[in-house]
Write a structure and sequence with these properties.
Chain C: It comes from Lachancea thermotolerans (strain ATCC 56472 / CBS 6340 / NRRL Y-8284) (Yeast). The structure holds three protein chains of three kinds. By secondary structure, chain A is an all-alpha fold. Chain A has two domains: 36 residues, no CATH class; 72 residues, Cytochrome b-c1 complex subunit 7 (Cytochrome Bc1 Complex, Chain F). Chain A contains five helices and no strands. In chain B, the strands form three sheets. Chain B has a five-stranded mixed beta sheet. Chain B has a five-stranded mixed beta sheet with strand order 6-12-7-9-8, with helices on both faces. Chain B folds into two domains: 191 residues, Cytochrome Bc1 Complex, Chain A, domain 1; 141 residues, Cytochrome Bc1 Complex, Chain A, domain 1 (2-Layer Sandwich), CATH 3.30.830.10. Classes of the chains: A mainly alpha, B alpha+beta, C alpha+beta.
Chain lengths: 128, 369, 448
Amino acid sequence: MPQTITSIVKMGDFILRSPALSKVVVPVAQQFVKFAGYRQLGLKFDDIIAEENDIAQTALRRLPEDEGYARAFRMIRAHQSELTHHLLPKSQWVKPEEDTLYLTPYLLEAEAEAKEREELDNLQLTTK
Amino acid sequence: MIGSRTRMAGARQLARHYHISAKDSASKVSTLAVRVHAGARYAPKEGLAHLLSRFNFHNTGNKSALRLVRESELLGGRFESTVDREYITLKATFLKEDLPYYVSALGDVVYKTSYRPHELPESVLPAAHHDLAVAQACPVKSAENLLYSTVFRSDLGNAVLYDAVQKVSLDDIKAYADKVYTRDNIEIAGQGVNESDLKRFVNDSLFASLPQGTSLAKEATPKTFVGETRLRSAEGDSVAAIAVPVAKADFATYQVLATYLTSALSDLSPLVTKAKLDQYSNAGLFSLYVKGSDAAVVSENIKKVVATLKTGKDISAAKGAAALQLALHNETAAFPVQLSLDNVKDFKLGKFSYAAVGDVAKLPFADEL
Amino acid sequence: MLRSATRSVFKRGLVTPASKPVVTELSNGIKVATLTNEQSAAATVGVVFGSGSASENPYNNGVSNVLAHLFHSEGAQQAAKAGIQLSTKTARDYQSYVASFAAGSGAVSKPLDLLQSHISAALESSSDAATAGALAKTAKEVAAFEASNHPGRVLEHLHATAFQNTPLGLPVRGTVESIEALEKADLQTHARYHFHNSNAVIVGSGNVAHDELVKAVESQISLQSGDKPVEKKKSSFLGSEVRLRDDTLPKAWIAIAAEGEPVTSPNYYVAKVAAQVFGSYAEAEPASRLQGVKLIDEVQEYHLCDSFDHYSLSYKDAGLWGFSAETSNIHQIDDLTHFTLKQWNRLSISVTEQEVARAKSLLKLQLGSVAADSVKLAHSLGAETLALGAAPDLTRVFEKIDNITVKDVKAWASDRLWDQDIAIAGTGKIEGLLDYMRLRNDMSMMRW
């Protein structure tokens, strides 16, 4: 089953609601983020979600202008860093509290719309 | 924005008071119209009323626009929202047995439209631009708008369609919606609808959750002015038009005059492209248009029309025809127009405002008429 | 799966019985048909003759249209004084002359007088000046139509090519050339041949009582007696195309149609439902873009057209089933026609339950919407009475529509659309409109 942002967010919420699960999973997730290293390149998590699909394109189109420019800046900066095989100076690393989910709400809305359209396109009439 | 919860609590306690009218009939199809005093004259920015009207039937808290369209087409119904200087009118036309669905759908639109930021650029603005382009392609419409802004300046003179001269933001639209969608400011009318059914369904719908508010309808006579405007335009034919502000007491005279000038009773009827009286709660505007591809001919004709009208005429012969026109109009209108035409006699043109559109070099000035 | 759109929850029984059309045939052969709406303050009566442009020939084409103009110019003065409003409609199968008036007892006599005097005027007594005036005005209007009403023009040419050399092929309005060649004698001959008792229906709608109208008609209306005029030729459909390419126009207008159903066909409503499956679309309307039509999804994804409209037009002998479209995307007309015709194929093989249910509801809405306006109603009442003997009661019509199933639609489409010939018409920038065979090939599939 292809994973959707909606299902991932749902799973995340479930984990966070359960104290036992979050005790195990949250530290693992934090380690994962650390090893992934995107913050050292000045990126936020939402910057590295695949954008080559209709859902993400719709979400990006609806992103407020300043958010869009900030995202473009972060990406160019990260590319430059990669190109020169450097990490950013530590002062410019994205701090955990700065790593906000700025795109996710738009992705969720776009996914919900697509899902509703899919359902309505395949409506079955029940005889009363 | 007012929190929806406080709105709900307040509304439930108040006496259930709406302006509802209904006319039952044998027809298989019913219409339900909600008329809101929210037209261009009430909007703090020009074009705001137009955008709010275009926002109707978009996503609401309960239902997406897509779901509304898909459900409604399965039931056999359609929606439209129109805007003019006085009203925003939401109208649903549907098969008679589906009344409850459509009452609830309209209530939903009025009370719970969610005004999502992306809807403005993706759907509302393109539709508004299209409306504007259609209107601008019509020289008669352009002349009418010029006359309104000349005669009334502000208020009824406000531009109706959004042309981005005054920038309107989403917050403006939301604030305006909160202001105008109140119970005292809307009238609900059904045709082919049982009145007690309608009242019951309205009470069960989100209409009941609207705040009481106050009616914005204006009663004081607005200030009027006399002037002339000219607009060079290569869009279609040339138009010369005159307009006279009409006090409420004179509606009948001008209604008959409009019929007279466009019927065979008057020798002027072949020259007059259009003559009409627009009625509003506290004033009206009578306007007359002469249109043609050759501006020189238009110029000659408007001179002839104005000269004849200035001499004074007995127009009482057109009373019957005018009454019939009203009766035919009322057959299909959700909000019938009642007007007693009995006392109409003579008409003489006094001061008037003037607008010329098109090849204005060949069209006369007001003082040449 | 999803439950159907809340229909069962909100259903409510009908309380008011619908009024039904009533028809009486008088001893002299005239039929009187009424559909009363007592709530209206106005009423409309009129006379509808069962001869329209299809009863004309290439040499007097447009004569019905001129007669309609004559009715307006001759009667207007008198009508306006009496508070009566005239309206006419010229169609392929009928021409109707109606007069609206303020309802009241005895009010029906004046408009009937007016109608009677028009009929006599058409037959002989109209003045030369009035005839010349009507001819000039008609010619001017037709010229304006041909110059600026592109969608209307395409539809006329669609008829002209589909029914070429048969009566339905003649343009309703006539052409400028044919109208300029007409004389007073042509009008009189046409009127004498067609304005018969047996070819006429007196209609009443709005607030008019049937019995009162029947009585008034008996005393006031006298038409020539005689048999129904014989139609010389039956109309028949021929797959063909006509192109009026004009690159100076801003857009392209095209229409494609297969042979449809005649009015009397048992499949009349099935064809109408099939047309509503695709319905109409206008790009500028946000709500129109959200409709549940697969064709609209395809059209939108590639912006294939600005608007389209599917129709099932029916006449006495034949009909047309197809669509008209307007597009500013002139380089993808091939895609527009391809996707549309491929969707038509689906009617025969994979149209769904939900699509048919939607189409049925929308058709009912469309048919029911006419009823409020007494003028429109008078025209359609006359046309239906002439074609079917009596206008069908809407309740029965709705029952018929309700009974249409997916199977019926598929059966009809396999018979009438699948691999059938088409008529094509277009104007504007239609360089991209494919040739006849390419389009014809899209009417079926090798496999699906």
